[in-house]
Amino acid sequence: MPTTSYRRRATCVLLGVGLLLSGCGLYPDDSGSADDGPLTLGFVNGGDSQFHTCLQRSVEVTAKNNFARLVTANSLQDAATELSNIEDMIAREVDAIILQTVDTDALKSAIEKAEGAGIPVFLTSMSTDPDDILGAVVVDLEAVGRLDAQWVADDAEGRDVQVGVIAGAPGAASDLLTDGFTEALPANAEVVAKEAGMFDADKAGNVAATMARAHPDLDYAFVANEQMAFAARKSFDTAGADEVEIVTVNGTDDALRALKDGRFSATVSNSAGNTGELAVRNTIALLRGRKAEKIDHTPIRLVTKDNADTAPLYCPADH
């Protein structure tokens, strides 16, 4: 297996100064030894929602196109499983771990374990202290939430309105999304209900049904992804709450159709395909010592019925 300069440096620190005399650190960082043979990348996904599925497909295709070996695992929204997956990637001696974390509180332990083994971590969707990671492709999730909140503010036009929030799984992405949304709402928009849908359609549908019964005057619902939003729409309609306007996140083809026919009012596009491609390309470039943004960004954009025809592709067809 090729040994990157990143791993050489970490290994030298761990093994101690004495080993420097027996070969560790003999090669300069720009020696090009990281280019010897294909890299092996580990991808630890966070769940099995449409976002996670598209992200993984993009990672797989981009790794193949760049002649990198790929080992994958899924944490299924569980922090303990994520740590176990990291340990497995360490045992497999991958050259780097691309991580879609499920819990920001547990992230530090995952990074420390990998770093202790001399394996760099590259994050998708969010970042942390740049000194602790190889790099990241960041979706500004708080900004995503703020865009939906701004649409609600503009649509409400100063009226006192009630808002429900159907979050994803507690921790990481969902918290950033919902915090961005709720903190950007105007004073005339009151959040009357907030519950986790766990990025699961059935759970989100049940949450929406409960909200509709408890809050018959509900005006808007923010739903943390479109997969849940479709289930929420069905439950609201069944409960006679068809006037509730849904704002959501992702920008899938199905959601664009829902914008056009009025089932959704707004969504924020953040292409999982773009995120996965950037993650693999930048990981390889940074391991090879080539030019790449250490902290890169997935573009985001508010999409409504009026501009749905020009929305970015969420998951390109060839992924």
How much β-strand is present in the residues? Answer: 15-25%
Number of strands: 12
Portion in helices: 40-55%
Topology order in helix (H) and strand (E) letters: HEHEHEHEEHEHEHEHEHEHEE
> What's the shape?
elongated
- Alpha-carbon distance between the termini? 28 Å
What oligomeric arrangement do these chains adopt? single chain
Q: Mean of residue pLDDT? A: 88
- In which order are the strands of the major sheet placed? 2-1-3-4-5-11
Structural class comes to: alpha/beta
The value of Rg in angstroms is 22 Å
Described by strand count, sense and barrel closure, the largest sheet is:
6 strands, parallel
- Number of DSSP helices? 10
- Poorly predicted spans: 1-34
What does this entry look like structurally?
The chain is an alpha/beta fold. The protein is built from ten helices and twelve strands. It has helices spanning 5-15, 50-65, 79-91, 104-116, 141-156, 172-184, 201-214, 226-238, 253-261, 272-288; strands at 40-45, 69-74, 96-99, 121-125, 135-138, 161-167, 189-196, 220-223, 245-250, 266-269, 295-297, 301-303. The strands form two sheets. A six-stranded parallel β-sheet has the order 2-1-3-4-5-11, with helices on both faces. Strands 7-6-8-9-10-12 form a six-stranded mixed β-sheet, sandwiched between helices. Helix 5 runs parallel beside helix 6 (172-184) and helix 7 packs across helix 8. The two termini are 28 Å apart.
Task: Offer a few descriptive terms.
319 residues; alpha/beta; six-stranded parallel beta sheet; 42% helix; disordered N terminus; six-stranded mixed beta sheet; 10 helices
